[in-house]
Amino acid sequence: MRLNVSDIPGGGLQTELDLPVEIDSAASDVAHVRINAFRFGKKLLIEGSLKMSLSLKCSRCLKEYSFPLNLAFRDEYNPVEEFENEDEQELTAGELDTGFYSNDEIDIPELIKEQVLLNTPMKPLCISGCRGICPGCGKHLNEGPCECKAKEIDPRLAPLNKLKESMEDRETS
Ligand SMILES: [Zn+2]
Ligand SMILES: [Zn+2]
């Protein structure tokens, strides 16, 4: 959905819509979005809120889980054409905070995707302190310790394991 900036009436434009958001090509989740757009000359102010449940893959155990997003945003947009005409003007901090639109159009899905990306964790975790997967046996360690871990961790069992190993050695030789 693209919005023509010059079509936005003086009193602003309110809209509410469901938008599919694709973060990685794997899945697309639907965001429920409310938007208020106001125009001041060519400057555009967009206030909105977004609610969705985003499917993410845990960075430690690769399990898919859903991450609830509920956020509000407020952004300013200026026509990129005007900015380009102001040749050799240095970017000021204030200008860096504003977004741009071109050809009198603002791309709402793109804007929403940006908001989602900004609020998605860089290293998603299915639960805080996810233990990941054992590199030895591939067991999901959130479900409990695996055999290889128990051998290393429990010092009381170490002598028993040694004994068992030596017995196994004797049996094979
Ligand atoms: Zn995990
Ligand atoms: Zn293991």
List the keywords.
173 residues, alpha+beta, 2 domains, five-stranded mixed beta sheet, 36% strand, rod-shaped
Polypeptide structure, described:
The protein is of the alpha+beta class and 173 residues long. The protein folds into 2 domains: 2-118, no CATH class; 141-172, no CATH class. It is built from 5 helices and 7 strands, in the order E-E-E-E-E-H-H-E-E-H-H-H. The protein has a 5-stranded mixed sheet. It has a two-stranded antiparallel sheet with strand order 1-7. The protein is rod-shaped. One zinc ion is lined by residues 58, 60-61, 63, 125-126, 130.
Number of domains: 2
**Biggest sheet architecture:** 5 strands, mixed
* Nearest-integer average pLDDT: 84
Total helices: the number is 5
Termini separation: 74 Å
Proportion of residues in extended strands: 35-45%
Percent helix, as a range, is 10-25%
DSSP strand count: 7
The helix/strand series, from N terminus to C terminus, equals EEEEEHHEEHHH
Strand order of the largest sheet: 2-3-4-5-6
Ligands bound here? zinc ion
Helix-and-strand structural type: alpha+beta
Describe the global form: rod-shaped
Which secondary structure elements does this structure contain, and how are they paired or packed?
Elements (H helix, E strand, L loop, with lengths): L1 E3 L8 E10 L5 E13 L2 E15 L6 E16 H6 L7 H4 L2 E3 L3 E3 H11 L28 H7 L4 H15 L1
Parallel strand pairs: 5-6
Antiparallel strand pairs: 1-7, 2-3, 3-4, 4-5
One zinc ion binds next to loops.
